[in-house]
Design brief:
Elements lengths: L7 E5 L3 H13 L5 E5 L2 H9 L14 E4 L8 H9 L9 E5 L4 H10 L3 E4 L4 H18 L6
Parallel strand pairs: 1-2, 1-3, 3-4, 4-5
Helix pairs in contact: 1-5, 2-3, 3-4
């Protein structure tokens, strides 16, 4: 996979096990991109707008956001709507990665501007395959806007 920049992945998910498995799946694929984690939509928005606990940190905008739908404070649906309606953030690709397979959630996510909707894999080996495919596609195949 050829990448002309240092990709940054931002994952918003309140499940500590899911975050750990994502980190391990990337490592299993020898994908060394920077990955940051937030636990809910409010933290996601604080990260993106450099406020709250992220106020004094110099964080680069993510190249890709992986977003769970069901989180406390601000859920993934609301966060998706906020990001895609913000002129400074709307070009950041967002993948919804969730346990939901509900047609309403799929339709709503695409209506709000999500780039991909993926149901979370059940097994770790499937997550390893999925992370490899995601990184190959988003950081090897498509052209992303510079942040």
């Amino acid at each position: 996979m050829k990448v002309n920049f240092e990709p940054i992945i931002l994952m918003a998910d309140d499940d500590a096990d899911d975050k750990l498995m994502m980190k391990e799946a990337l490592a299993e694929n020898n994908i060394n991109h920077s990955i940051y984690f937030v636990s809910d939509g409010a933290e996601l928005m604080d990260y993106l707008h450099e406020r709250g606990k992220f106020l004094l940190e110099k964080l680069a905008k993510p190249s890709l956001i992986i977003l769970d739908l069901n989180m406390p404070k601000i859920d993934g649906r609301e966060a998706l709507g906020l990001i895609k309606s913000d002129t400074e953030l709307k070009r950041i690709p967002i993948i919804v990665l969730t346990t939901s397979k509900a047609e309403d959630d799929i339709m709503k996510a695409y209506d709000l501007g999500v780039n991909s909707f993926i149901s979370k894999p059940v097994g770790f080996s499937d997550l390893v395959t999925l992370t490899r495919e995601i990184c190959n596609y988003w950081f090897g195949t498509v052209a992303l806007p510079k942040q």
